[in-house]
Specification:
Two copies of one chain form a homodimer. Chain A is α+β, with helices and mostly antiparallel strands. The first copy, chain A, has two domains: 2-272, L-amino peptidase D-ALA esterase/amidase (4-Layer Sandwich), CATH 3.60.70.12; 280-403, ArgJ beta chain, C-terminal domain (Ubiquitin-like (UB roll), Roll). Chain A contains eleven helices and 15 strands. In chain A, the strands form two sheets. In chain A, strands 1, 2, 3, 4, 5, 6, 7, 8 and 9 form a nine-stranded mixed β-sheet that branches. In chain A, a hairpin with a 2-residue loop joins strand 12 and strand 13. The longest helix of chain A has 23 residues, at 250-272. Mean pLDDT of chain A is 91; it is low at 182-187.
């Protein structure tokens, strides 16, 4: 099993992609419409935002996935098509219809996603006008363009592929993703589109995606507070020709492993590229009484604005971490907790049994000044663990969100 | 009933206060030790942080309030005396003992509070050395000094008094308070100390304080996520000589009204002086199915970093408000929600039935550029309402929390 860092959704057999500037973003040089296409319809699954306010594309994509089949995904950035009423639903449907016609496939085999500003009517004509060229541009080299076209405030394009074997067959999973507003991903839409040539039943594909999402994207900053438009979609076209996976056998877990690997890698890329972020923060809570507690605790820390600003300032202000554990809602015993900061440079213990211990502040500062910082939390009250990823809170976060509008 | 804006804890009969620089704050010109004293012991009550990690003073103050009596409150800033283990508890106890001796009163009639950095041993000698002068300085003019001495990153001192009548007696409530880290008050300790010359049973005093805290301090940004050291204390010394309140009669509700008025005013002062804040945001959710839902919804909005940054940028990005309502955990119907922005300038409707409507962006910008901005949310699904207060999220919040350490 190995990661292919320069490949994306077109790495698996039979997948094509493209990206184009259709005019939803004002800047002419920025791509804003992406297409992913499989030469045969595949089994497909989706995981969606739990927000009560949902973007129009969420409704259309869910509807089109009732039969658990899909062949294409069309995605625009620059407008979320959310809080746009019936008009928004009609336009999301129209996007799928137009794209289906251009590719000569069934409308309900086209999935739709949008990301960008909320509450502004979608200019569907710009999309319609661009669909012919977008479709024509489809190629096995198109993943990078598609990755650029789904970006909003992201600074770095996110694509990745992973190869593994099932029996004598090589199977590939490819992906493009976007994140953004990272201080609580409450609005910065998180999108991830996965392709694979694996041959698997739609039920198991869906279950694997759901499981994998839980320990990857849902561990980026807080979850539950998901955006109106978040979604993770996967299409499996079966062209790897492996023996079809229809039960939870070794092959299934092989696949789940690879899926987890690519999703966790993308989740970390999303966290690291959080709005205004200068650092990736990984928070590991271990020796907790159970997994659920560990998860809530790790997210409470990763999501604390005061922890985030302290890390931004290279300040080993561990009291803020203890405080975030204390208000998490979990019934903790502060008097058993040890805290460590760690980076490529070194590891340093800063708190023992919930109390201050002597540590070298300068060393701590150096550790925290690295681009990847780990917060290790030993609960000493069990055997379970969880990890969450986030980023620091910088001036640029305020700048981006005080000024950015589309 | 009227507010006395230049008075504080020494406004009620028989109360004295003082403030001094004892050396816990490095800057010599900054006061860091405060004392409030009543010439007779009074009934007293406290409301404390729900954080599982609690500062040492919380334990000692709770212990000293078992008999529901108190005569003095000593408060230091510059060190929270939290995560300091048994040593911290001993020192909090010692603070009370020393102060009691100096005033020649009982140790358990002295309440203790601390605010500042976590996990650093408290230099108790500096406090002990300062207590004689601090006690000597007590005066009816000392409220302002005490208000300064409890500040950390607060920019504005917070004191207030309110006068009302019960029968033919004038009753006064006085207060000093501090806030600070306002983006979720998860660490910025919120302290409020109230004095009154009211004659009331300790049970009803406690109940009134608890009720009043719920609709005032607990509505500032999010609650539940309270700091390790938050507390609200009140001493009622009875010197107003009103007929003692021992049941929930009109007099009780008169008092509760005045208490609510002073606490809500202080809560708004705390929100407005949030770290880095340039504006006070008031979020009113109305026509909700019930009070609890309205409260959760209003806090979800007031606490969203993306709403806060939008208001900082004078950006009428109402989609972020709808999103915060959507992820609040409350089962809302987005299709009945109307949104308005309001300030002294004007009111503007920006969303109807969960959908975009036309509004003049320039007018909206002007409305949002005022120092006090209201977000009005008409749920059109019931008759209940709640209000929450918060502040915008600015560059200075990041600066203060990325750099501030004591």
């Amino acid at each position: 099993m190995y990661l292919l860092e320069n490949k994306g959704v077109t790495a698996p057999k039979g997948f094509y992609a493209s990206g184009i500037h259709c005019g939803l973003k004002k800047n002419n040089s920025k791509l804003d419409l992406a297409l992913i296409y499989s030469e045969v319809a595949g089994n497909a699954a989706g995981v969606y935002t739990k927000n009560k306010v949902k973007g129009a594309p969420i409704y259309i994509t869910k509807e089109h996935l009732i039969n658990k089949k899909a062949q294409a995904i069309i995605v625009n950035s620059g407008n979320a098509n959310t809080c746009t009423g019936d008009d928004g639903l009609l336009k999301a449907k129209e996007m799928a219809e137009f794209q289906a016609k251009a590719l000569n496939i069934k409308t309900d085999d086209v999935l739709v996603a949008s990301t960008g500003v909320i509450g502004v009517p979608l200019n569907i004509d710009k999309i319609k006008n661009a669909i012919p060229l977008l479709s024509k541009k489809l190629s096995t080299e198109g993943s990078e363009e598609a990755a650029y076209a789904i970006m909003t405030t992201d600074k770095i394009k996110k694509q990745l592929a992973i190869e593994f074997t099932i029996g004598d067959k090589t199977v590939t999973i490819g992906a493009i993703a976007k994140g953004s507003g990272m201080i609580e991903p409450n609005m910065g839409t998180m999108l991830s589109f996965l392709t694979t040539d694996l041959n698997i039943s739609s039920e198991l594909l869906e279950e694997a995606l759901r499981e994998s999402t839980k320990i990857s994207y849902n561990r980026v900053s807080v979850d539950g507070d998901t955006s109106t438009n978040d979604m993770v979609l996967i299409i499996a076209n079966g062209l790897a020709n492996n023996e079809k996976i229809v039960s939870k056998n070794n092959d299934y877990y092989n696949f789940l492993n690879a899926l987890n690997k690519i999703n966790v890698s993308l989740a970390k890329m999303i966290a690291r590229d959080g709005e205004g972020a200068t650092k990736l923060i990984e928070c590991i809570v271990y020796n907790a009484p159970n997994k659920e507690d560990a998860e809530v605790l790790s997210k409470s820390v990763i999501n604390s604005p005061l922890v985030k600003t302290a890390i931004f300032g290279n300040d080993a202000n561990w009291g803020r971490i203890l405080c975030a554990l204390g208000y998490s809602g979990i019934n903790i015993n502060p008097n058993t907790i040890d805290l460590y900061f760690k980076s490529e440079l070194a590891e340093i213990k800063v708190c023992e049994n919930g109390k201050a211990i002597f540590f070298d502040e300068l060393t701590a500062k150096k550790i925290l000044s690295k681009e990847e910082v780990k917060i290790l939390i030993d609960m000493k009250s069990g055997t379970e663990a969880a990890v969450a990823w986030g980023c620091d809170l910088s001036y640029d976060y305020v700048k981006i969100n005080g000024e950015y509008r589309s």
